[in-house]
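Appendix B. Raw example, untouched.
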Amino acid sequence: MADINGGRRRFTFLCYGDSNTHGTRPMRHPSDLARYRAHRRWPGRLATALSSSAKVIEAGHPGRTTVFDDPVEGAHKNGLAILPAVLESHRPVDVVILMLGTNDVKRRFSVTPWDISRGVERLVLAIGASNCGRDGMPPGVFLVSPAPIMETGCLAEQFEGGAEKSRRLAAHLAEVARLHGCGFLDAGAHASVDPVDGVHLSSDSHAALAEALAAALRPLID
């Protein structure tokens, strides 16, 4: 894997997700915008774990959905609409680490886990149709199913009815990964949301998720 100067180039991962990729801390009130420092967020921890062999780009946006314009927070939350600009901004990308679906379980969207997985599938197809990988090829995709949520704290009403949906999502996303030849990790097997707000990961869970991803991704680099 050489660069144009004959040296070894770094493998590039683009982490495309929502507030749990952005590193939002568990919220005690809806206006709380606090964020973990870069070295404590899972993309930063992943970059440390993979050391000089990989470049990890963090592209997390609080409130991001898979394919839905948010009627409350705005159309810019639509992950599919924004994806081409993010890919083109960071090309060439070797692999997109895609972790979305949590915000889709909000009550206002009224969709099923199957619907959400179809939204993720549209993102996978959009990445596969892009020329944002090496030599004009599409990047690979590694799917991460988000950790299931709890309906508690200041976000409970927004996510009413979402906890049960979130627990069913991993099986659907695993099937999407199988159909499209993507890597797959169930974040819920390694990390959990903080009961303070029931949606955002604790610092320890960021660490555990990064460790699990590093183990899964090292073979791609090698």
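End of appendix B.
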